[in-house]
Write a structure and sequence with these properties.
With 303 residues, the chain is α/β, with parallel strands linked by helices. The protein has two domains: 3-155 and 205-302, Ribonuclease Z/Hydroxyacylglutathione hydrolase-like (Metallo-beta-lactamase, Chain A), CATH 3.60.15; 159-199, no CATH class. It has helices at 41-47, 65-68, 71-80, 94-105, 162-167, 175-179, 194-197, 240-246, 251-260, 279-286, and strands at 3-9, 23-28, 31-37, 55-59, 87-92, 114-119, 126-129, 133-139, 147-153, 159-160, 184-185, 191-192, 198-199, 206-210, 228-232, 266-269, 292-294, 300-302. The strands form four sheets. A seven-stranded mixed beta sheet has the order 6-5-4-3-2-1-18. A seven-stranded mixed beta sheet has the order 7-8-9-14-15-16-17, with helices on one face. It has a two-stranded antiparallel ribbon with strand order 10-13. Helix 9 packs parallel to helix 10 (279-286). The longest helix has 12 residues, at 94-105. It is globular and about 75 Å long. The termini are close together.
């Protein structure tokens, strides 16, 4: 099953140095999930060939402009392009009022339904559960109410060994049972164990998206063992005081989060506009957690 994330924006606060503010899109089994939607996200979608019509779920972490100011434009474009299917939006409760007011004063009636789910910044909750994935909120510690999102892949079915099954003329009607772990009894009575005809699926993967937050161990247990951890790394550690004032994290701290939560890999983003080059930020995080990569716009990372 495909499980990957494409970065659409990795800057904090403002677009600068060809970096757009935060937005990324997850592809989970060919279903697209948009996570945050800064100003300019539509242009980034055009640039990196992400089709808005394929997005049915949008997750907004908090109501600072560099995480949601592109949302209204995207919703409006979907309307103008003839969208009919519902769009699910998950975000802070006041976001619904913002959306409703925009359409009230522009006298716009959408051609499609928006299904809004308010997130709770005070406790982790499962906000989406479908055949591919569950999505859980991660309460974070920012200057305003803010949640991250934990995408957990569902356990997959066993994989049929086609050559062996074909040789036994196993009826197609029995394939689902094989995938679920049942043995196969041939017409002559011979029993074939399931592990002779199928292989076990890989362990379910998970992607932890930790948006703007102060370094705070309150969310560590929830994200433990993430296959891929995205964590903000706004400043270098020599600006720790500034990071604390603004409720952000340094690159060194992001590395410590990955180390302490036993993440498999770390992806850092939300870079301050003061940094034209990101080499120092990467080196600082890697000094603690070597399996670290920069969230570079247009790049796709497998979970």
């Amino acid at each position: 099953m495909k499980f990957e994330v494409t970065i659409l924006g990795s800057s904090s606060a403002t677009p600068i140095y060809n970096r757009n503010p935060t937005a990324q899109v997850l592809n989970i089994n060919e279903h697209l999930y948009l996570v945050d939607c800064a100003e300019g996200t539509q242009q980034q979608m055009l640039r990196f060939d992400v089709k808005p019509s394929r997005i049915d779920h949008i997750f907004i972490s908090h109501l600072h402009g560099d995480h949601y100011l592109g949302l209204m434009g995207l919703i409006s474009s979907m309307h103008l392009n003839g969208r009919r299917k519902p769009l699910q939006i998950f975000g802070p409760a006041p976001l619904k009022e913002i959306v409703d007011l925009q359409f009230k004063f522009s006298e716009t009636t959408l051609r499609y339904e928006i299904v809004f789910t308010a997130t709770n910044p005070n406790e982790a909750q499962i906000i989406l559960d479908n055949p591919d994935v569950t999505v859980e909120t991660i309460p974070l510690d920012h200057r305003i109410a803010c949640t991250g999102f934990l995408f957990k892949e569902k356990k997959r079915l066993r994989k049929i060994i086609k050559e062996k099954v074909a040789g036994l003329d196993v009826p197609v009607s029995h394939y689902t049972l094989l995938k679920k772990g049942f043995d196969y009894e041939a017409p002559g009575g011979k029993l074939y164990r399931n592990d002779e005809l199928t292989t076990a699926p890989g362990e379910p993967k998970c992607y932890a998206y930790c948006s703007d937050t102060l370094y705070n161990q309150q969310y560590f247990k929830q994200i433990e063992g993430a296959s891929l951890l995205y964590h903000e790394a706004t400043f270098l550690h020599n600006l720790l005081e500034r990071a604390n004032e603004t409720h952000h994290t340094t690159a060194l701290q992001a590395g410590e989060v990955a180390l302490k939560t036993r993440a498999h890999r770390l992806l850092i983003g939300h870079f301050s506009a003061r940094y034209k080059s990101l080499n120092e930020i990467l080196d600082e995080a890697k000094s603690v957690f070597p399996h670290t990569e920069l969230a570079i716009e247009g790049n796709t990372y497998e979970v």
